[in-house]
Design goal:
The chain is an all-alpha fold. It has one domain (about 20-75). Helix content is about 85%, strand content about 0%. The protein is built from four helices and no strands. It has helices at about 1-20, 20-35, 40-60, 65-75. Helix 2 runs antiparallel to helix 3 and helix 3 runs antiparallel to helix 4 (about 65-75). The mean pLDDT is about 85.
């Protein structure tokens, strides 16, 4: 039983940094998509607002909110 708890704790500890690394990758996807985006200015404004919100959440350590905001921005860009 001790072994199971130790393995479970190790998996939990290793999974947190992995999800935190998604935020910069999502931001890079948005940066690349914005360079070739064919959406209207209002949509670009919404994307950038979500990008800034996601970036701020990432820097504050709220990776769930960051990924949600960045994911929404990608959806607006059609990705």
């Amino acid at each position: 039983m001790k072994w199971f708890v130790l393995v479970l704790a190790a998996v939990a500890a290793l999974s947190a940094p992995a999800s935190a690394s998604q935020c910069p990758a999502l931001m890079a996807q948005i940066d690349a998509a914005m360079a070739a985006a064919t959406v209207d200015d209002a949509t670009k404004d919404k994307v950038m607002a979500l990008y800034e919100s996601g970036k701020a959440a990432h820097e504050a350590g709220d990776h769930a909110k960051s990924e949600a905001d960045l994911g929404e921005a990608l959806k607006l860009l059609g990705l």
